[in-house]
Amino acid sequence: MIAHTYQAIPAIELDAAQAPAHPLRPVFVTVIALKVAVSVFLLATVSLAPPVAAETSYQSIASVE
């Protein structure tokens, strides 16, 4: 068995200049941005809703005197 040394391992070179971007990357980024925008809108809508929006028939029996 041959023992390999750290110096014998070739250096890892990242050649990012030759790696083209995926063609659907802008679509993915747009979809994620729209999802975030819709979720923010829905959370804002829910947070602005009145606390008691149900009719009196849906209220708890415990509130009856």
**Alpha-carbon Rg, integer:** 29 Å
Could you give the count of β-strands?
Answer: 0
User: Helical region count?
Assistant: 1
- Please state roughly what percent of the residues sit in beta strands, choosing from under 5%, 5-15%, 15-25%, 25-35%, 35-45% or over 45%: under 5%
Question: Can you describe what's shown?
Answer:
The protein has 65 residues and is an all-alpha fold. The chain has one helix and no strands. It starts with 24 loop residues before the first helix and ends in an 18-residue tail after the last helix.
Summarize the structure.
The chain contains 1 helix and no strands. It has one helix at residues 25-47.
Walk me through the topology.
Blueprint: H1 25-47
Describe this protein with a few key phrases.
65 residues, mainly alpha, 35% helix, 0% strand, elongated
